[in-house]
Amino acid sequence: MSTPTQTLGMTKEQRADFERDGFIMLKGALTADEVATYAAGIDRVYEEEKAADRLSPQGSMHKLSAVTSCPELAPLLNHPKTFPMVWSMIGWNVHVYHSHLDKHPPIPGRRPPRFEWHQDGGRQNRELETDPRPRLSVKLAYWLSDVSEPGRGNLKVVPGSHKTNWIEGPPKRDMEWPDPPGAIEVTADAGDVIFFDRRIWHARSDNYSDVTRKVVFFGYTPRWITVRDEVHHLPSESWWNDLDPVQQQLLDGISDNGDHHWGHWPKEVPLYNWLAERDLFDADNPPLKA
C-alpha cells in the first residue's frame, strides 16, 4: 500500500486560486486503473452494508472512517498527486480526523426539501470566536464516478465563501429555500479530485441522473485536534504493517502522547522527516517551518 515519491508541493498559482476561491480542482489525479480499483472497493463495502440492511431508505451509503471501512483505499491517504496540497497548506503535524466513502444511486423523483448548506467542523463553527474563523482543516474529494454534468450528486460550493462565517438560510431546514447567491455545482470526471477549505459553504446536489455517484472524502487537520474516525484499533489489523510510516501517521497510529500530537518532537513525526529528506520545507509557507 505504499505510495510513490512526490517531490512537488502546491504551486503559487494553485495557492492563489485556493486562497481566493476556497477550493481547486486537480484534474486527472487518478488513473483509470486506480478509479476502477477504488470504485470496486466502494462497491464491495456497499454490498456488505446492503446485506446488513444499513443503507438509507433511498439505497445510498454514507460510510464513515474510509480506510477502516475499506482498507484498499489507504493509498489515497498520501497520494502523490494530491497529498502535497495538504502539507503545503497545513504542514507536517497532521492526521486524518474525518473521512467517508459515499455511494448514491439515482433517486426516482424529487425528494422533500432540506437545506443542507454547511461548513465542516461541527461545533468549531459555534465555539470559535474570530471572523473569519481559522481554516483548521482541509479536505480531498476523490471522484470515482462521472459528475461532469450537474445533477449527479455534484459537490455544490459558493466560491470565496470560506471567509464568511454566516450565510442566510431558512428558519427550518425542511423548508423550500434557494441556494445561496453565487452557488455552483462543481463538475468533475472520474479520477478528478477537489481540494477544499473546510470553511467553504458547501452541500451535495441530488442525483437525478442515470449515473451512480461514488466518491471518497479525506479531511486533514493538525494532530492536536481530535480524531472523529474509528482508527485506534488499527495497529491490530492485518494490513496495518503494509502501510508506509506517513500513512500510519495520518491514521493517528504513531503515538498516544499528547505532547507528541502537539508536534514537540518533529523528528519523530514521519511526514516531517519525509519532507526534510526531500528539502521540501518552504520558507514562504509558515506551516512547514521546522
Automatic annotation (TrEMBL):
SUPFAM superfamilies linked to this entry: Clavaminate synthase-like
InterPro entries on file: Phytyl_CoA_dOase-like
GO terms for MF: 2-oxoglutarate-dependent dioxygenase activity; iron ion binding
Residue span of region Disordered: 154-174
Domain of life of the organism encoding this protein: Bacteria
Protein name: Phytanoyl-CoA dioxygenase
Organism: Phytomonospora endophytica
UniProt lineage: Bacteria, Bacillati, Actinomycetota, Actinomycetes, Micromonosporales
